[in-house]
Specification:
Layout lengths: L11 E5 L3 H12 L3 E6 L12 E4 L5 H10 L2 E4 L6 H9 L8 H8 L1 H10 L7 E4 L2 H11 L3 E5 L9 E4 L5 H7 L5 E4 L4 E11 L5 E3 L3 E6 L2 E7 L5 H17 L4 E10 L4 E7 L9 H4 L4 H10 L11 E8 L6 H6 L3 E5 L10 E9 L5
Parallel strand pairs: 1-2, 1-4, 2-3
Antiparallel strand pairs: 5-8, 6-7, 6-8, 9-10, 9-11, 9-13, 11-12, 12-15, 13-14, 15-17, 16-17
Helix pairs in contact: 1-10
Length: 363
């Protein structure tokens, strides 16, 4: 069965994943008049509690996928660790999936991702595949120390990676990541970390949000500031990189792109995420159409919305027990509190975020 776009209000959007991104996608979809069906293995997931339909099952459960395909007019996903096999099965069942499976597969493997970016003419840090101790030693001869060793698959918020200072540490470093297939990266000499939320519609139209400056702590995004200042050269590079990537992927939906700005003004791409992204949470209170609504608009074939900033926003993630300070945060003027409905506030877990707004300055 071929889906006809644009989808009208009243249609159903399927979401693979039940976390906070799925929750905010479901809220945006409901605002536009769509129903949402969430498939996630966790009972009582944050996204399922705001959706019209909740399917509690493994992502590769055939019966559950068949139920989702029968309910949904289009299916999307809220994080990139959804098995690509689930998208393949949904496609076999006749479901329309966006973004496409290729985007997910590339984002799931750090080596394949950087290989694709380099092939598209997009600059990254130096990198090499590591399957054995000899590969890591060869990378030291090629790049010199130190090197960042990462598992090719899995891992987020700084997990699954380790700095290697000496070639003699190769064996111990590989043991620290359980000898999993890995990638090694040369350090990026950068002045700041940047990010941009980009969207591409079903007709190939592209919309870019203003540039964001990111600040990480212990591998976890701590806060973002947007829009950020930049030279005309930086903005031109971002536009070229984002358009090149979106078109090369034949992408439909919102994509998060993380970059390094070097001292000479050149940009390197760190990674892309084929989904709405933490660095775009500022758009919830900084733009007329936020990243979640934009993603829904793109996948259902509606026109993309405006992306200009209406105000400056600093977003701060609430990690673990910091969420218990919600009452004090709610009393702050010009502060919007976004809580994700997660039950357990474990250390480092993203429980919510706050957006602190101020008048827009000339960026």
């Amino acid at each position: 069965m071929t889906t006809s776009f644009p989808l009208p209000p009243g249609a159903t959007i399927g979401i693979l994943g039940g976390g906070q991104l799925g929750r905010m996608l479901a809220m945006a979809a409901a605002r536009l008049g769509f129903d949402v069906a969430v498939l996630a293995p966790e009972p009582d997931s944050p996204a399922a509690r705001v959706a019209a339909h909740a399917i509690v099952a493994d992502y590769e459960d055939h019966s559950a996928l068949a139920t989702l395909a029968g309910l949904a007019d289009v299916v999307t996903f809220e994080f990139e660790n959804v098995p690509a096999a689930a998208l393949m099965e949904l496609e076999r069942l006749g479901a329309e999936v966006a973004p496409n499976r290729r985007s997910l597969i590339l984002a799931q493997d750090r080596f394949e991702e950087k290989t694709f970016l380099s092939g598209a003419g997009i600059a990254t840090v130096g990198f090499a595949a590591v399957d054995a101790e000899a590969d890591l030693r060869a990378a030291f001869r090629r790049f010199g120390p130190p090197l960042l060793l990462k598992t090719r698959r899995g891992g987020y918020d700084g997990k699954g990676q380790i700095w290697v200072e000496r070639a003699s540490d190769a064996a111990a470093s590989l043991a620290a990541i359980d000898h999993r297939p890995a990638i090694v990266e040369r350090p990026a000499d950068f002045r700041r970390e940047l990010a941009i939320i980009a969207a591409r519609g079903r007709q190939g139209e592209i919309a870019l949000y203003p540039l964001t400056e990111s600040h990480h702590e212990n591998g976890i995004l701590r806060r973002t500031s947007a829009p950020t200042v930049g030279t005309p050269s930086v903005f031109a590079q971002v536009e070229r990189i984002a358009a090149t990537l979106l078109n090369a992927l034949d992408y439909v939906g919102v994509l998060g792109l993380e970059l390094f700005e070097r001292d000479n003004g050149r940009l390197l791409v760190n990674e892309f995420a084929p989904r709405v992204h933490n660095t775009g949470h500022w758009t919830l209170d900084g733009c007329e159409v936020d990243q979640f609504e934009q993603h829904i608009r793109a996948i259902v074939g509606w026109p993309l919305g405006p992306t200009a900033a209406l105000r400056h926003v600093e977003m701060t993630n609430l990690l673990g027990v910091e969420v218990t300070g919600w009452a004090a945060l709610a009393r702050e003027p010009e502060t919007r509190v976004w809580l994700y409905g997660k039950r357990d506030a474990t250390a480092g877990r993203k429980m919510g975020h706050v957006n602190r707004a101020s008048p827009l300055y000339d960026a």
